[in-house]
Amino acid sequence: MRTMTWCLSLLGLCVAAGCFSSGLFAQDDAAAAAAARKKARADRVAALAKAAAASKTSLARAIEIAQKEVGGVAVEAEFELEGTELELEVTVLKDGKVLEVELDPATGTILETEDESDDDDGRRRRRSRGRHQEGRLIPAACGRGTARRGLCEKRSLGGLLPSAAMLHPSPLAFVVVLGSGLASTADGPSDALEAALVDAGANRVELERAIEGVADDQREGMRWLIAHMPAADRSTLTSTFLIEHCTLAYESWRAAPWHAEVPHDVFQDAILPYASVDERRDLWREDFRERFLPLVADAKTAGEAATRLNRSIFDVVNVRYSTKRKKAQQSPYESMETGLASCSGLSILLIDACRAVGVPARFVGTASWSDDSGNHSWVEVWDDGWHFTGAAEPTGRKLDRGWFKNRAKTAKAGDPKYGVFAVTWNDSPHSFPLVWEPSNTTIRAIDVTERYARTEPVVPAGCARVFVRVRDGTERKAIPLTLRDANGKTLFEGSSRDETADANDHVTAVLALGATVTVLPHGSEPSTFTVERDEQLVDVAYRAVAAPPPTGSAIDALRVHLERQGLEGVAAQEFAQRALSKAEAAEAATLLWGAHADAIRRERAAEIDAGAITLGDQTMRFWFKTFGEKPQNGRSLWISMHGGGGAPPEVNEQQFENQKRLYTLDEGIYLAPRAPTDTWNLWHEAHVDAFFARLIEDLVVLEDVDPNRVYLLGYSAGGDGVYQLAPRLSDRLAAAGMFAGHPNETKPIGMRNVPFALHVGADDAAYKRNAIAAQWGERLDELAAADPGGYLHQVQVHAGKGHWMDREERVALPWMASHTRDPRPTRIVWEQDDIVHDRSYWLAVDRPDPKARVIATHSGQAITIELAKNVGPLRVLLDDTMVDLDQDVIVVREELEVHRGPVRRTIALLSRTLAERGDPRAMFCAEVLTQPE
Length: 933
Description:
alpha+beta; 8-stranded mixed beta sheet; 22 helices
């Protein structure tokens, strides 16, 4: 084997057979024939060398055989070509001696071992022959059972070829110099792979089949996967399992529109892996790709795809959160079998769904919150950096939002218990804290606490976050509740969570440290606690009130009535006529609202789930999407009316579909209703008011909408509807946006308390939309100047735009969102239209007149009705936020004092005003009836 050799280092490996071009050989320009012969020989040598080195795995196996059979540490491996004969030699260091081990490239047989540790004059040779029974040196590209003598036509090495600069046309050899006794490759050191293969024991054959069984351009990924897989998988996973996962992972990654934005190392760590933690290993990629790819077919970014999946897949596979799941770390199919999963199971399912469509995703969590109240898991996805989301806790199209965001701010970097860790398949000194199996430290992780923790205060100085949990026995109960201070002042209103919410997701209130607070759960006895620390968890036992105490108070009687009969007939009861104290009125309002909300949940959840409300013989369908994190007081609601009208149903149906996609929100529920009719005035017929009132009432309860943040907008015929409906529904709206519509007979006088955005195209001359919009702008300017604090408006005529404004009108949405409804404005201008209502804010009439106009103000203890045109009996609704009902209240109607003195609070009036509006912010406990002079 003493032939001319050439050496190559890892950095000098050539990656293509094109390195052996004839242009690399010295040619004799004067002897063309000689040059041709040289070229032919060089080509033959290159072809043989390429075939001989057809597999990096083969070279690694040769080294393994030499080390195992001879002992010692391999430092060099050499392929050598002499004529057409191919030989393989491995240099081994053992006991201070240099041993040259010659192997048969085709069979893996050790042909000869030579001791070359002496100098040339005294060199001793020890020869030993034998066969290696287990490790046949077969090029991986040829497949098992193939033993062609060192040659394989099927696949090239793709990396382990000789350097052209070292090539010589005479007998050929090439050497791989080793640094650690294991073969190195163009991909990087293979010691991790070799260690994994050795650790696999008898299952090594399956792992090698997996490497052999994937395409050339996926083999690097397969080697990486095997080298980095959890130790438990090396001895169990089959080649079939690994090949399917690897092949489909590459296909999904390369087919994704965001492929170019996903670095290769991110692909390896967050798409290629077949598992997240120690869950059962499933073949999910093909199934999930078929199920979920249509959901993200037009997504442009990985983040957009991830949020779509989070909004949809759990309904598709019918899986929900539950503490009754079989185990924490369920695989996707284990969760789908029962329909129940923990936060960990939900996260695993979402991660696999993301990976199946080419979205990099990984498992994240903390072993414990800083107050030791529990652990939590969630998901991070890659979209030009890592972003988080809660599985089955969608936040619209936004990432980096979730109920746990504030909890994670107190995490402690570097702390295995209180830190936040993300699972990684790369090498890492950290292990992921598996709370279900703490002794398992084989799942590697990186500490990502710094991305979540904050150094600035989470809550204002002197305050603390209090988590309230209501339990009915051992189970959590979802129930409306009110928190009040020692003086009876309401501090917070919300609803506790039941077993469908994450175990660490609690209703949260920010309260003053040291305060004594009473919790009033609906239908249950109150509970009192003291605010002692931040992140304080308060457990409240649900104790239903079955009978009134001996005192026989109106509140006690109300509790009994609600328990037995619900809201039916409350106002007609004797106890409902009794005078209440201020504190009793507040408690009665809480009880009544709780009963109302319970009734809505029982009786109307189905219509929201179905997306259709039926009133009489008409039905209004609707569609909605939720965006962003829910604020503490509830979500905003945006009712967006489509165009069309006076057209065939299919035209209006298409307009309905268009409206769904027209706008997006930073936060809130975007709801597009389908007009119940197809008439020209489809959005300002009388039935529309009732449908919208019902819709708002339902969503306040069922989707936790803040009734003070309801917005109305519409385009074209939908804009016509805004002109008409905004004054009619003014006491339900925070703001209104009219886009590209015309008002018909409506005037702006009724817009006093509704911030109004008006946008049209300057060239939109049909129905004089542009001209009328300009007139409305001037009129609103005049009204605002004459009535400071009223008629807030934003009017814009878009230059160069026709009926379609290219969405320039979207600037109105943040302006609208900056306003909230005041349910008790200090001044009311109420003008009836052809569609009449019997109440506006704190004024009500029994016989509404389409020609009526009322202007009223309240200041201090005085209520003044400045104008009551075409109005009969007028009721002034009151509560203790407007006046002190225990002191004299003065009511003047058109310069005539009609009342002076205290006003009685009653359950009857609370019940009646609740029934009128279904709005917890629009309940009143007292009234003064005024008559025309």
